[in-house]
């Protein structure tokens, strides 16, 4: 039987054995006392502070370059793509017919009226695209209105 095939217990607990093994590791420990401690700590602190300040302009220049080389062209490209898509959508809406209103009994059941307006229209009601139960469309789309929407 090898050493690793059986559990290690120290006074009946494996946790005590693990804490004992951790204490036995070669962990570097620093003393917080002594005459050299304050001097060493202040020099280290000032060195760390100055080294961070030396890197700051380089890091700022890097992110400035990333912004102007990558982000600005990508924003322009996405704005152009969005505008082209918007024009296609407008052209598509010009050829769209308004759907016929069919009062199905299972659609738009209202257990309680909406707390605004007449209680029959939703909060984002559009009179051209949303029909009102029992009434139908409030406004019919003409050819001029299709181009505006």
From TrEMBL:
Keywords: Membrane, Mitochondrion, Mitochondrion inner membrane, Transit peptide. Pfam families: COX6A. One of its GO terms (cellular component) is mitochondrial inner membrane. PANTHER family: CYTOCHROME C OXIDASE POLYPEPTIDE VIA, CYTOCHROME C OXIDASE SUBUNIT. It is found in: Mitochondrion inner membrane. It comes from the Eukaryota. Belongs to the cytochrome c oxidase subunit 6A family. Its main location: mitochondrion. One of its GO terms (molecular function) is enzyme regulator activity. This is Uncharacterized protein. GO terms for biological process: mitochondrial electron transport, cytochrome c to oxygen. It comes from Meloidogyne enterolobii.
